[in-house]
Each structure stands twice: as C-alpha cells, then as structure tokens.
Automatic annotation (TrEMBL):
SUPFAM superfamilies: YegP-like (SSF160113). InterPro entries: DUF1508, UPF0339_domain, YegP-like_sf. Residues 10-57 form the DUF1508 domain. This is DUF1508 domain-containing protein. Gene3D superfamilies: YegP-like. Signal peptide: none annotated. PANTHER family: PTHR40606, UPF0339 PROTEIN YEGP (PTHR40606:SF1).
Amino acid sequence: MAGKFEVYEDKAGKYRFRLKAGNGEIVAVGEAYETKAACIKGTEAVQRAAAEAVLKDLTA
C-alpha cells in the first residue's frame, strides 16, 4: 500500500499535514500553515524535494 499525506486542522485552527507510510505509521509531519491551500502546497513541496533527495549520513 502506498503512503499518503493527511491534511488536518489543529487545536489552534492552523492547518498541518502528516505523511503516513503504507502501514499507517506517521513518518513525517509538517509545520503549521495559516490556510489549507498553503498546507497543500507544503505537501507538494515535500513530494518534489523527496523525489530528488539523497541520503547524507552524518554519523560517519
């Protein structure tokens, strides 16, 4: 099963997103946004960035 973004309104009335893996585990959360549209744009930015992201191991 594919992962999915969920957009929701927090207790302060701000919009946030979380990324859930296929097994339902939350693997990432976004910052608070003033509008739902801005929150959705945030998910799109994460999708674009992740497509080209590389792993940088800082433990070595």
